[in-house]
Amino acid sequence: xxxxxxxxxxxxxxxxxxxxxxxxxxxxxxxxxxxxxxxxxxxxxxxxxxxxxxxxxxxxxxxxxxxxxxxxxxxxxxxxxxxxxxxxxxxxxxxxxxxxxxxxxxxxxxxxxxxxxxxxxxxxxxxxxxxxxxxxxxxxxxxxxxxxxxxxxxxxxxxxxxxxxxxxxxxxxxxxxxxxxxxxxxxxxxxxxxxxxxxxxxxxxxxxxxxxxxxxxxxxxxxxxxxxxxxxxxxxxxxxxxxxxxxxxxxxxxxxxxxxxxxxxxxxxxxxxxxxxxxxxxxxxxxxxxxxxxxxxxxxxxxxxxxxxxxxxxxxxxxxxxxxxxxxxxxxxxxxxxxx
Length: 340
Description:
Blueprint: H1 2-13, H2 17-30, H3 34-50, E1 75-78, H4 84-93, E2 97-100, H5 105-124, H6 145-148, H7 152-155, E3 162-164, H8 169-181, H9 184-192, E4 196-208, H10 221-224, E5 230-236, E6 240-241, E7 249-252, H11 275-282, E8 291-292, E9 297-300, E10 305-308, E11 318-327, E12 337-339
Parallel strand pairs: 1-2
Antiparallel strand pairs: 2-9, 3-4, 4-11, 4-12, 5-9, 5-11, 6-8, 7-10
């Protein structure tokens, strides 16, 4: 272990960040170790700013002729048909893409357990005890405010909220292994025409309690900006959506590539879209409320208009992982880039 860590440090000193990460990841895959997993969080955070990222240029998927606007409905495909071209067709031409059966049920069950372990560790505040489930890297800027306090009332919000994935080192490394197993890095590299990066602030574990409160319609580009290329993979780990007992996602398959007016009549916040605007948009793009099985994946970008579904009939919590990927050369610094 000491030799592995020393070699990894030597590699980073020579600017070989990818090699150092691969070395630690391979050793950790063979034998899970908290020291390796925490060091991987540190290295991945440091690596992005330390490495050179050439511009992808005009070859990214947004220029593909095949991605011209299609039918105003979500594109739904099977996992075997998932590639950079179907991703572009779904996200850019249809507003969003659903990939059925992208992740195996055994893996989604495992990830549910990981989320529970992470939440329990946060509630116990395990950070000072070398926990693989609770860690704040010294290279991580900030922390979700509602999880920072030891106050019981604030910490209780974890049960129905969210935690940044890199705050749970074991979960982070396992998720990256899952993403590698489905070929996500190569698909996104082709889609962006350059390597993808993850965002710490937008890579989130979620365990959401059933709630009858109405959620607000929003586009992530409203508060992240639009001068970049992005893809979000929303991965439900439990059955949810239409006909299920856990909240899914309501989506308007918008194809106009614009940010709509926010904060107006009927808007809960200054970054949400008001009801009259949504009703007008529904005349052009019919509302979608898909049913998801565990391991189905929803892909969209920062122009997508969506909200969490709600209703008094909901009785089960929803587990999910939200993963925002960006073209490495253009990811906003405030999103805290992470090497993928």
